[in-house]
Target: Ubiquitin carboxyl-terminal hydrolase
Amino acid sequence: RYVNGHAKKHYEDAQIPMTNHKKTEKQEKVQHTVCMDCSSYSTYCYRCDDFVVNDTKLGLVQKVREHLQNLENSAFTSDRHRKRKLLENSSLNSKLLKVNGSTTALCATGLRNLGNTCFMNAILQSLSNIQQFCCYFKELPAVELRNGKTAGRRTYHTRSQGDNNVSLVEEFRKTLCALWQGSQTAFSPESLFYVVWKIMPNFRGYQQQDAHEFMRYLLDHLHLELQGGFNGVSRSVILQENSGLSASNKCCINGASTVVTAIFGGILQNEVNCLICGTESRKFDPFLDLSLDIPSQFRNKRTKNQENGPMCTLRDCLRSFTDLEELDETELYMCHKCKKKQKSTKKFWIQKLPKVLCLHLKRFHWTAYLRNKVDTYVEFPLRGLDMKCYLLEPENSGPESCLYDLAAVVVHHGSGVGSGHYTAYATHEGRWFHFNDSTVTLTDEETVVKAKAYILFYVERQAKSGSDKL
Model:
């Protein structure tokens, strides 16, 4: 039987010899639950928490392996034929494949779903299309995680191994290098997912996860690992040599700067004013993304074609985030002058904008019993998002430094955070693509702007060009 992309088979009295495992006679005669990886055909025993090296006397492992290989070859051939037929018959794709008068081939690579891993695939595809961030990792030298007798073998990660045997940076680098090669229709990120399970316990298992939460955990762990280097290799030197980012462009979060903070890092100024004595408190908070509420007056709007009232825009969400607000009774401010908690107001200013502005629309809200989704359509610009009016000192910014162009959008399809499906739209070399796990299709701007965005990635504009401002 198949569960989450893996084939499971129960063996009774299977006598499967295990590596690094001293078995008793009783252990050899119990039922073992074994999982076989559909990509590498490695076999793993849940009871022994180790990989199977030798087969059973009846050759049961080899029989399952051969069966999986036949299924994989059949599925790959069918998928490749379907994609070729789609490209040949689709007039939209035929038109979009013509760039500068010449026809080019679709070179995008999808990511296989390993069992409700669409949340991870959507984030990975979005990050792979943020060129400055992606190129940094692709230019990193490969890290050999094993040596000696195990050199050259594929690295597997189990719960019994230590944390020093895995590298999120290395597996992230390998995944990015596998995308946009045009050598395969889909890449299986199982090695990266193994590392995610190892170092991010919240994402173990095959249940649906929140894409924004995964993105934050991923960036935080990449940042921490890059600070310390891996196997004695310092990443800070590579950051200075390869990223082309000066110290003034870096934003330190939890220690030394890395490419994560250099690209996504910004700074907020949080102003709190006591309504009783007027005392003002200021605090600077670094951020990697901004989480924006959808204003309550728009939360009942469910379609793009609004019939009753104005349409919600990204500017409405940004204004709601930065406008002055009075804190409610549950958020009373401890005034140092009054020496007690008092009513107060709060306001956010952006003190420093990042190179890549990540905006998360808060579509999931807890009620008394469950977490509901705000399905409101939010209008967002593809080009020319102007952030100057939200800056603390706009007069110190250049004319182009506050303008952002859209690079990627993550969309959640469905009604709840624990269900539904994630896909992503991203632009690559002037063309928009829709990433739906293994399937990647060309699309147009009209389709992208109709999407009910969940996470938006905007890249700071470098060169002057005409655009409509938000």
Observations:
- Residues 294 and 317 are 6 Å apart (CA to CA).
- The mean pLDDT is 76.
- The radius of gyration is 25 Å.
